[in-house]
Amino acid sequence: MVCFSRERMINMNSIENKRIESYRNYFTKEYLMGPNSLRLLDEMLKKYPLPEGGRVMDLGCGMGLTSMFLAKEAKVNVFATALWISATQNAENFRNWSVDDRVIPIHADANNLPYAYGYFDAIVSIDAYHYFGAKKGVFEDKILPYLKKGGVFITAMPGTKEEPGGVPAETLLEWMGGNRDDYDTFHCRKWWLDLIGKSDDFEVVMDFDLDCFNEAWNDWFESGHEYGIKDKKYFDNGMGGYLSFIGLVIKRH
Ligand SMILES: C[S@@+](CC[C@H](N)C(=O)[O-])C[C@H]1O[C@@H](n2cnc3c(N)ncnc32)[C@H](O)[C@@H]1O
Q1: Which atom of ligand 1 is nearest to 110's Cα?
Q2: pLDDT, tens digit, for every residue of 76-85?
């Protein structure tokens, strides 16, 4: 067994944190759309690094922060795909961030993706999959076919620690502004694993709760975004204790 001194551990942590800290200028209400997606992606890529040079779909890329991070840090070519943000707006972001040679903005619905089957080395979806993936068959029918054999789907999404009844239902529904669809996206890791199920065509190679839960939410609260301020009130009232960030890595056979 290798034992490291406390100083060495602190040093290793600060080297590991350096990558994400260099993106601090982007932790703002102009770019964040929820808990800090860069932190979430950074942790996923540390736990499951992608080989350089591959072709990656960033599914539900928001303002494109995660696509930019993938291009710069994982050194992959990215198809930045989102429904709520236009391709024109994201094209401008990618130009401003000097990644427009490696990141292509696409406006598309995950339920009807405009890509060739078997095209991607990886599909990454950060704080987005729960919006469209919480139904039986979505993963196998609408996501998996776009991966090459041996390709991986990597997602990090908000959920609950337990269910059913793991969260005070009334408060969760109130937090979601009474919107049943949003409410129904919050589930625990086991629920997601059961939904995705088992098949000879794929294998869940990692499932865990992300370590950066508190930091990712705190960055969002501190961004000054009006939704972040609202979310903090619910966390301060105890909601945070029921929640988790769920990480899954699934490999196509
Ligand atoms: C909360 S935002 C997160 C964005 C980004 N990943 C981030 O964390 O900054 C949710 C994202 O999911 C995407 N989304 C929701 N439903 C979608 C669908 N049916 N197809 C494609 N993208 C979808 C939205 O376009 C948006 O980019």
Answers
A1: 20
A2: 999 999 999 9
Compute, in angstroms, the gap from residue 33 CA to the centroid of ligand 1.
9
Q: Are strands 202-209 and 77-82 parallel, antiparallel or unpaired?
A: unpaired
Amino acid code (one letter) for 74: A
CA 212/CA 221 separation, integer angstroms: 14
Which residue from 132, 179, 186 has its CB within 8 A of the most atoms of ligand 1, so it is best to mutate?
A: 132
In angstroms, the CA 242 to CA 168 distance is 9
Please give the biggest Cα pair distance in the chain: 53
Q: Residue 1 pLDDT more than 50?
A: no
Query: Which of 46, 205, 209, 66 is CA-nearest to residue 127?
Result: 66
**Confidence band (pLDDT; 50, 70, 90) for 9?**
very low
In this model, does residue 8 exceed pLDDT 70?
A: no
CA–CA distance, 164 with 153 (Å, rounded to integer): 26
Residue 249, both tokens: 């890595």
Task: Name the residue at shortest CA distance from atom 4 of ligand 1.
Answer: 62
Distance (Å) from CA 194 to ligand 1 centroid: 23
Distance 64 CA to ligand 1 centre (A): 10
pLDDT in tens, 113-158: 999 999 999 999 999 999 999 999 999 999 999 999 999 999 999 9
